[in-house]
Amino acid sequence: MAAGLIENETGTQRLIGYRLDVGQPDRRARCRLVLDDRHTNRHGVLHGGIAATLLDSACGATASLTVDDTGLRPFLTISLTIDFIAAGRAGGVTATGRVTGGGRSLLFVAGELLHDDGTLIATASGVFKRVPDGASSPRAPERTEA
What we know:
Elements: E1 5-7, H1 11-16, E2 19-21, E3 30-35, H2 48-65, E4 75-84, E5 91-102, E6 106-115, E7 120-130, E8 142-144
């Protein structure tokens, strides 16, 4: 199993500034972001679109870990439902994915976005489709050891 972090893999990841951890023994990807004013809405709390992006990234990478220890095998988001529970305040947040079902090409994945203080900010449920072999080639991201 690959241990480490995926950084700067996509334009979205570079723009928002999150880190993707695919090296945990439970094979659940974690998407980590330290919030600052670039990530907030007009009310000064985490923007819902950024929360959704973190959950989507964690869930998609969790799906990838079912077939690829690097977490780089592409999966497409078919559907994603987000429930916002609490406001995301300044500090660190982590989105974690968990496979809940599926088969060879479609996986059902749930996610939670937690603040470092333990507050549940949002939950997600999604369907992710495995990209067939040869349909796409992953870019080589910068990887660092955890």
